[in-house]
Amino acid sequence: MIRYPRRTLLRAGAAFAGAAALGFPAIVRAQADKIRIGHLTPLTGFLGVIGSYAQLGAKLAAEEINASGGILGKQIDLLSEDSINPATAATKAQRMLEQDGAVVLLGEISSASSLTIMQVAERNKKVFFSTGARSDALRGKSCNKYSFHCDIPNTVMVNAVGTALEQKGMVKGKKFFTLTADYIFGHDLLKAAKVFFGAHDANLIGDELIATDVTDFSPYLLKVRQAKPDVVCCNLAGNQVTNLVKQYAEFGFPYPLVGFNLNTGDAWAAGAGNLSGTWPTVWYHTLANPTSQAFVAAFTKKYGKPPENHAWIDYVTLKLLAEAINTTKSTDSGELIAYFEKQAQFDIGKARKAYFRSWDHQLVQEAYPFTVKPKDQMKDQWDMLVLGDVVPAANDPLETIYPTKEQNPCEMKA
Amino acid sequence: MQFEFLLEQVVNGLVLGGYYLLVALGLSLIFSVGGIVNLAHGAFYALGAYICVELTSRLGFGPSVVISPLAVALLGILFERFILRRFYTADPILSLLVTFGLAMVAEQAIRMIWGAAPVSTEIPQSFRGSVIVGDFLFSRYRLLILGVVALVMVGIWLLLHKTSFGRVVRAGIQRPDMVAALGIRLQPHMTAVVMLGVGLAALGGAFFAPITTVHPAMGADIMTIAFVVVVIGGLGSFWGVVIAALLVGVVRGIAIHFEPAAGEASIYILMFVVLLVRPRGLLGERIEKFE
């Protein structure tokens, strides 16, 4: 038997385990004489599940656009890769723009990665559509001229759920305990939640910041019980939400669990019978709207399962980008930005059309609170949610649920 | 009151440690006997969870949680005979590469069979909720896990210390050359050790499936902690791994009680300190072939 030092072996083992955690991106190579569009989204890690949906949505949009003649008569060549983490996301974004010749970037779910891609976009003077990141700060103090934000920001999610909770008498004078994802998104969401609690006479009696790779929540749940709150509120992200929801059901606490962030993919992963409470969403596949239903039918036909909200947002973003390029007959960043800043309206499969607000580049659109269907009423494993009343209500201007210039100021340098 | 809360975290940490133990013990056994760092160990954990979810919809939870680890243990036979066996005496970097590659293949295979989106299953109704014993709150389901872990550990201890099989395995850890000189072939024992090791990992996966996200990369999540436990516990020692697993669970619980932000870092600090004081791990024996 060969002799080898034990610690060398363990060290090598640990190095491999570390490398495994980085993941292995699927690299789609570029082809010549096409319009290249760079798509980055997390396919591994705690957001990998919902990122996989985003990739499917973007691919479907590219196929449909190409089948109907492409943009400016050219086919789209979608380079879609795993963004992995903020540092790698920035490196890949730079490479896509510099070496692969991408004319525009889109994608991302992690607010931390989105922030680094936004900086790359600004340096290279190329447009980036941050499709799934929700941190208010990206639209506020970190905003820049080249970045556009498609998903609803944290403040909107808090307002959507908060309003629904208030109607049920679950806010005023109640004691809240929050569990918060420990990165820019979670911190930002907690900030928005605190503003809401402050404005509605609710008390925040405890908060736990939780690392994104935590899979066991039992120590935190014990702390929740020790605090004896009226409502437990989840400000987590991705797999964290799924794990919390499952373990909350496991412990069977009497305090209702609600949340200011949930993606349908995480709800599906938690499974029927585990999820309860009131949550926000930007879109759900049962939404009764012809554009949405056409997308759901095409997606389900191609992939054999209904689309998740990140599939939808990446799909509509690529579609509206193609529309913008075809209208302006240009892929020039300046012309595209000018077009979007005129607040052009887009059909994104909701009752009201959406537009990018000129001063912070936020895609202003409707949002929905939802509750969970009893298991025996579900048609299939994906039919989990009951959408509540659309916010804002049909007579109110769309922007009423979005932060104002004063609340989330954005200064774009020219 | 503060003290009771802390004690509650300690007890909860012990329960969690029991679950780490399921994965770490197999990793330690395979390394101790075969000298192979099985980077594919997490893949067997994931397979255990997936097979359990798949079977639960047909057979219910009880039978699934038994059948799933057994099925994975059978896979372990193939794994040992056709892959691991070639690398016992080879340069360790080769076995690292092979098991690392296998972990990737397994993850992609799971993705192809079950899809990239997580699958889900529920805890049986009778094990939902928590019980309060004295001042402590326990999840019923985790108490069940704890009971199963305790039973399994007693079984393994008896197997290793009270049977001729166990004697050969323990001798094989220390002096494989001597075992061979006595005319005993270690390889059939190694097959059994690998079956046992990956079966335990699958048992952990099966029991954790209802309370965690069952997704293709879940194996990678558990591997880091399992490694830490093995390093802290020391090689070749059954009790070393047991104590290390419980310690890791408890230290994490205490850290989260006092300084939540340090919760996940605490176990690495623990490993660092243990290695500084006892480079061989808590109860690690001096094993000639690894020196």
UniProtKB/TrEMBL annotation, chain A:
Q: What keywords tag this UniProt record?
A: Amino-acid transport, Signal, Transport
**Residue ranges annotated for the Leucine-binding protein domain, each copy included:** 34-374
Q: Which InterPro entries match?
A: BCAA_transport, Leu-bd, Peripla_BP_I, TAT_signal
Q: Which Pfam families match?
A: Peripla_BP_6
Q: Which PROSITE patterns match?
A: TAT (PS51318)
SUPFAM superfamilies, per this entry? Answer: Periplasmic binding protein-like I
Q: Which Gene3D superfamilies match?
A: 3.40.50.2300
Family, according to the entry, reads as follows: Belongs to the leucine-binding protein family.
| Name of the protein in its database record | ABC transporter substrate-binding protein
Q: Which organism is it from?
A: Bradyrhizobium iriomotense
Automatic annotation (TrEMBL), chain B:
Q: Where in the cell is it found?
A: Cell membrane
Bilayer-spanning residue ranges: 20-47, 59-79, 85-106, 143-160, 192-213, 225-248, 254-277
Which UniProt keywords are given for this protein, alphabetically ordered?
Amino-acid transport, Cell membrane, Membrane, Transmembrane, Transmembrane helix, Transport
Q: Looking at the record's lineage, which domain of life comes first? A: Bacteria
**How is this protein positioned relative to the membrane?**
Multi-pass membrane protein
Keyword Membrane appears in the UniProt entry: yes
Q: Does the keyword Membrane apply?
A: yes
Name the protein family: Belongs to the binding-protein-dependent transport system permease family. LivHM subfamily.
Q: What is this protein called?
A: Branched-chain amino acid ABC transporter permease
From which source organism is this entry?
A: Bradyrhizobium iriomotense
